[in-house]
Design a protein that fits this description.
The chain has about 575 residues and is α/β, with parallel strands linked by helices. It has 2 domains: about 280 residues, Up-down Bundle (ABC transporter transmembrane region fold), CATH 1.20.1560.10; about 240 residues, Rossmann fold, CATH 3.40.50. It has 21 helices and 10 strands. The strands form 2 sheets. The chain has a 6-stranded mixed sheet with strand order 6-7-8-3-9-10, with helices on both faces. A 4-stranded antiparallel sheet has the order 2-1-4-5, with helices on one face. A hairpin with a 2-residue loop joins strand 4 and strand 5. Helix 6 runs antiparallel to helix 12. It is elongated and about 115 Å long.
Length: about 575
């Protein structure tokens, strides 16, 4: 709740005005039964038609004021809740974008998506409900009791006798609500994860005829969420029927006691009518209070999940380190890293690249090739060892400086629903000449210019309206367009034919020869001309040297090369 208050604070003046207007609306509503009682008991017996009309007009004005002020207050409440949630969502998105890869792995992407969507929606509902009902319900409850005290204290005591039981009920249920709704949101995370996996893997699911299997898997997580929602609903819904029971028992008692008092001449009929109206008002107010507790329980659970992300300390802090004089541009020295901190994914990896040199990295799936690139860009921190760029430890370079040094094509990279030009530029405001040069080098120029709209051709999300090879060439152009110091190509030519791959390698040597390059590949042909080749297996170095040296000294590399040569891949 402290987190929500932080975002509410700028809107306190507007919220206070809205609550004041809501107070006026509530008072107007409370006056109506009292005015009706006064007309029946005091005005009608006088026989004055003028007084009856005047008091009737007063009731009409009070009803109109209650209607108008309620609408105005509710609109102001909606404005405050919308802008409060907008601020929360903005900061949460910004914080998520700054989380390290390890922190994203910790929370998982589906959970972060759920916190940005359903959790912020629950907070929005809570803030709006508090403003709409947070003033009205207590005023109607307390005001109704106070006015009934002035009408008939005895009947009021009968009514008030039920309130302690209701207070105990609401307190008990609200305490159970927060942990229950927190579990609901965890089940929501699980369902979002399954939906996300199904949507992203829809082609594989259809190709392998696993639609029925995935439908059953989704049914499982969906049912688990339904069961938890039902549990939450059963617990929280206890308040309404039990509250109705208590209040209806109280209402029956009021009618019985009131009947005896009217018969004895101690109470007037108009007072009984007013009491029934106030009893209805108090009943609705108590229903409003229970709805507030339900919504606050849900909103508090979601708020704590949001605050958990907002309060997490930033990972990968800057660590001052000594800059060494060195001829090397990129250097790994005895680097060891583990994702789960139990089994090493990379172990004792060392190599050094001079400016403009190329390192080829090859190995079996899961051998740590992509992990090596992630450590170089400091997406994760090493467990031990040193990684340096121009003699400067990457842990001492600010992210905004470090990441501008790289051009990168990841193994599973993304294109966005925008033009080809904007996908290559990527918000960097690069000169058009640089973008066109990068497209030509990436072998994308011919197919782009052949499109009816050229560089203005609109891509669908993830670039699904391009072929696999076309997507890879656009991604290569994006990496090259920023004139990087270090180029990382993580299996970025797997969808290219051998002729296009050879043309790409030639263009890289001619146009970007001064760029230090790390090429992660499955093809020996993509790296055989590299100055250095690193062979990995299960995170360990099996071989390091030139193509000729490894063909003589590394059995694994020689076996891969010979197999690909037989298949025509060299």
């Amino acid at each position: 709740m402290k987190m929500v208050w932080k975002y509410l604070r700028p809107y306190v003046p507007r919220m206070s005005l809205g609550l004041a207007i809501k107070f006026v609306a509530s008072v107007m509503e409370l006056l109506l039964p009292w005015m009706l009682s006064h007309i029946i008991d005091d005005v009608v017996p006088t026989g004055s038609l003028m007084m009856i009309l005047l008091w009737g007009l007063g009731m009409v004005l009070a009803a109109f004021m209650a209607w108008a002020t309620n609408i105005l207050a509710n609109r102001m409440a909606a404005w405050v809740s919308q802008h409060t949630t907008k601020g929360i969502r903005h900061d949460l998105f910004e914080k998520v974008s700054l989380l390290s890869c390890a922190q994203v792995d910790q929370y998982t992407i589906p959970s972060l998506e759920s916190r940005l969507t359903s959790d912020t929606y629950n907070v929005h509902q809570m803030v709006g409900m508090i403003q709409r009902m947070g003033v009205r319900a207590p005023i109607m409850l307390v005001g109704g009791v106070l006015i009934t005290l002035t009408l008939d204290p005895v009947l009021t005591l009968v009514l008030v006798a039920t309130l302690p039981f209701l207070a105990v009920l609401v307190t008990h249920v609200s305490r159970k609500g927060v942990p229950i709704y927190r579990e609901v949101q965890r089940r929501t995370d699980a369902m979002v994860r399954v939906v996300r996996e199904n949507i992203s893997g829809i082609r594989v699911i259809k190709a392998l005829s696993k639609t029925d299997y995935e439908r059953e898997r989704f049914a499982g997580v969906n049912q688990a969420m339904v069961d938890q929602e039902l549990h939450a609903g059963h617990v929280m819904s206890l308040t309404n029927p039990i509250t109705n029971v208590f209040l209806n028992v109280g209402l029956t008692a009021v009618i019985l006691v009131g009947a005896f008092r009217v018969n004895a001449g101690l109470t007037q009929p108009g007072t009984i009518l007013a009491f029934l109206s106030y009893f209805t008002i108090i009943l609705n107010a108590l229903m409003g209070v229970t709805r507030i507790f339900v919504m606050v329980s849900r909103g508090a659970a979601s708020g704590s999940r949001i605050d958990e992300v907002l309060q997490i300390p930033m990972d990968l802090p800057l660590i001052p380190g000594e800059t060494e004089e060195t001829p090397y541009h990129v250097e790994f020295r005895d680097v060891t890293f583990s994702y789960n901190k139990k089994e090493n994914n990379l172990e004792d990896i060392s190599f050094a690249l001079k400016p403009g040199e190329t390192l080829g990295v090859i190995g079996a799936t899961g051998s740590g090739k992509s992990t090596l690139a992630a450590l170089l860009m400091r997406l994760y921190d090493t467990d031990s060892g040193r990684i340096a760029i121009s003699g400067r430890p990457v842990t001492s370079i600010p992210p905004e400086e470090l990441h501008t040094k790289f051009g990168v094509v990841f193994q599973n990279d993304a294109l966005f629903a925008d033009t080809i030009y904007e996908n290559i530029d990527f918000g960097r405001s690069l000169p058009r000449e640089a973008i066109e040069k990068a497209a030509k080098c990436a072998q994308a120029w011919d197919f782009i210019t052949a499109l009816p709209d050229g560089f203005e051709h609109m891509l669908s999300s993830k670039g699904t309206n391009l072929s696999g090879g076309q997507r890879q060439r656009v991604l290569l152009a994006r990496a090259l367009a920023g004139s990087p110091e270090i180029l990382i190509l993580d299996d970025s030519s797997s969808a290219l034919d051998y002729r296009t791959d050879a043309a790409l390698r030639k263009a890289l040597r001619e146009e970007y020869g001064g760029v230090t390059t790390v090429v992660i590949a499955q093809r020996v042909s993509s790296i055989m001309h590299a100055a250095h080749i690193l062979v990995l297996d299960e995170g360990r170095e099996l071989g390091y040297g030139t193509h000729e040296e490894l063909m003589r000294s590394c059995d694994v590399y020689r076996e891969i090369a010979e197999i690909q040569m037989e298949q025509g891949g060299l």
